Each structure stands twice: as structure tokens, then as C-alpha cells.
Amino acid sequence: MRLDDSLQTIFATLPNLRLGRIVRPSVASRYAAKRAFLNHGTLPVFEYPKTANVDFFKIRQTLTVARQSLAADNSPAPLKQLYEYKLNEYATRLDLVEAITQSDDARVTALSYKLYGQPNFSSEDFEREFEKRCLDLKHERVHHHAKRIDAKTFATQVHEALERLRIENVEIRLSTRTRVLCQRNPHSGKLFIRIPKKLSISRNRAKRLIAHEIEIHALRRQNGAQSQLHILEHGTAGYVKTEEGLALYHQAKRVPSSHHLPGFWDSWTIALMQRLGFAQAYQRVFDAKKTLLDLAHTKNAAHLAQEKAWDLCVRACRGITHPGKPGLVYAKDSIYRAGYLAVHKAMMQTDADKLFKTLHQGKIGLEDIQRIASLNLNPQLSLHQSITSAYASKE
Question: Which of 117, 138, 301, 361 has the fewest beta carbons closer than 10 A?
């Protein structure tokens, strides 16, 4: 029995929107758009077929009943407030899905800002950051023969990390995606670690990914599942900004990098899309990626830059049907840089070790800490000494 059983029962009456899947363009439209854009410069047009089966009227009726049930519930006020915020977030997600069905790109953009915050980064700041990275790379020694970590080797490292941290109910799968991903099945509760089949990364990059995906995402999920609250397992409203910010902060603590601050490429791409639109944003990201690959004397630099630039720009306009005009973006990926900066600031202003442990209670955001503290929980955290040692003193 958990303290929020009745509240979770209310929230569970709402269908899982699976927003992450809904906002991804169909494979067919993505492929056709890529071919037309790269070969002829035709601006993309994306389709979102997963919106077709969403019954907006019925879900809004269910949402109204859920709000009424929440108001009548006798749970502690701070706990009810956490679920009130969750219902408000759900309503915004539903509005965003509806805007996608209507191809209302401006509204999709506005609602993504409401969910994830409006990015306030300047593309000029990223230009300066990029120039510094180029100068640094010119003076770095490139190890062309350094052994790379492939998908099979990385899967073994992930398995070892899961065993070390005693994280259970996890399945490692090879994926056709381009990024390592930690996902929870909403029905079974099982966690899936998806590893790109064509993965080829440095040893340090592998260490950062394990710190990011396992020591933060997977471990926070498990601690939440073992807590007194369902909401710590499933996530409070807006927790994802802190989630990703903490993951980036932690990976930087575990394996420091001389490169640009975390969240650089995603946030820069969004800033470029806001100012320039899809075509010019793509060209700038392509040029930047190719410059770095050329400096590192990478083979097939143009092709690799093309693939990276396309993927970044498509991610920056998920949910958008006609992403040609400046200002049309899906803002989720801006949370990486914004979340990192917020967590970094919080760590500098307080006891970093205590804050790190507090955030490891489950899927909570920085803004939830006081509400959670007022409930006087007694969290039993699963934290390995190797993880917490980096936080024993302030930076």
C-alpha cells in the first residue's frame, strides 16, 4: 500500500498518450521528406498517423471526472497538489496532440513551450561556443587508432552496471535508432535499454552514457518504484527537465569533458530553427558538424554530417507538419541544456551530496523538493558508493 494509492487510481483512468511516439513523424513521410530535401531542397512535410485514434472528446470527459475525484479526495494537500499539476500537464499534452491533428504548427510550438519551457538561448552564444570548440580541437591530439566501443561491448558494460547497482526488471535491446535510450513499458513496468545496432563510441563516451542512462534514469526509476509514492516512479509534472539536467550533470562529474557544455547540439539546433527556419538551420548544423569531423580527420565526414544535421533538425520540429518557417519548433530538447544549468546552479548553492540523494528518491523535479519533504517520507535509497563519492564536497 502506498500513500497515493487513491490518487494514482484516479490518474490511471486516463489513457497513456505516449506523446513521445505520437510526435514522431511516420517512417514513410520522414524518408520521403529526407530524400526530397537532400536531393532537391524541398522543404519537409511530415505526417503523424498515430494521432488518428485519439478520442479527444471522450478523454476530456474522463479528465473532467478525474479533476472532480481529485478535489473530493482526502489525501494531504501537498500530495493532491502534485497530482493536480499532473492533470494540468496531461491536459496540455492532449491539447498538443489535437493541434498536431489540425496541422496547427504555431499552436504545437506554443504548447511545447508550455510543457518544456520557452528556450531563451541565443544562437550567437552557441556560435561563440562552437568557435571555442574548434580552437580546442585544433590543439587536441586525435587518437585515430583508439579502440571504439561497439553495440555488443556496450551492452555487456550496461549489463555489468545494472548488476552492480542491483537494478532489476530491465531488458537490453539493440535498436535501429541513433541514440541510446532508457524507456519504461507503461503496461509491464519493465525498463528497456535500447542500444543502436551501429553504435561506435569512445570509451569515455560509453562511461558517460552509463552514468546518464543507468546511474540516473534507471536508478531514479527503481528508487521511485520502491518508494511510498506511485508518483515518484511515474514522474511528477515537469520532472523531465530535472531528470535530463541531473543526468547530464552527473555524467560530467563522473567523466569530465573538455568539450562544450552538455546539451549543446540540441539547444543550438532549436535556437537556429527559431531564428532561421528548417533549411538554413540544417545548413548551419551541417557545416558545423562537418567542420568538427574534418578537424578530427574523420572518414566520410560529409555523409556523417548530413545524417547528424538531418536527425537534429527533425528532432527539433517533431509534431510540426510544415517546418519551413522560422519560429516553428518542438521545444523538448532544449531541456537538456536548461536542465543542466538549473541542476548545476542548485548544486552550487546547497549541499551537493544531500541534494543528489534527495533527487534520487524518484522521478521528481527541483521544484518538487519542498512538497515531497513536507510529506515526511523515509526513502530507502539504492545508491552505490561509486556514484555518490563525486558529491562529497562542493565544486
Answer: 138
Do 205 and 252 contact (CB within 8 A), yes or no? no
Q: What percent of the chain has pLDDT over 90?
A: 77
pLDDT in tens, 148-207: 999 999 999 999 999 998 998 899 999 988 889 888 887 787 899 999 999 999 899 999
**pLDDT at position 392:** 58
3-state secondary structure of 104: coil
Please give the sequence-ordered ranges of beta strands (E in DSSP) within 179-263, or none if there are none: 181-184, 191-196, 200-201
User: Grid coordinates representing 162?
Assistant: 545494472
* Secondary structure class of 135 (helix, strand, coil): helix
Backbone angles phi, psi at 224, to 5 degrees: -65, -40
**What is the side-by-side order of every strand in the sheet holding 191-196?**
170-175, 191-196, 181-184
Q: Backbone dihedral region of 199: left (phi > 0), alpha (psi from -120 to 50 degrees) or beta?
A: beta
State which H helix or E strand residue 350 sits in: none
Question: Is the per-residue pLDDT at 290 higher than 50?
Answer: yes
d(CA 317, CA 311): 10
Cβ-Cβ contacts under 8 Å for 109 (sequence gap 6 or more): 320, 327, 328, 329, 330, 331
C-alpha cell, 169: 526488471
The grid cell for 84 is: 493536480
CA–CA separation, 306 vs 293, rounded Å? 11
Rg, Å, the chain Cα set? 21
Quick: pLDDT tens for 107-130: 999 999 999 999 988 889 999 999
Q: Over 80: is that where the pLDDT of 223 sits?
A: yes
Give the whole-angstrom CA distance, residue 97 versus residue 17: 9
Q: What is the pLDDT of residue 147?
A: 82
Contact 219, 360 (CB under 8 A): yes
Q: How many CB atoms lie within 10 A of CB 233?
A: 20
In sequence order, the 6+-apart residues with CB closer than 8 A to the CB of 310 are 34, 37, 38, 282
Per-residue pLDDT, 123: 86
Map grid coordinates 513536507 to a residue. 374
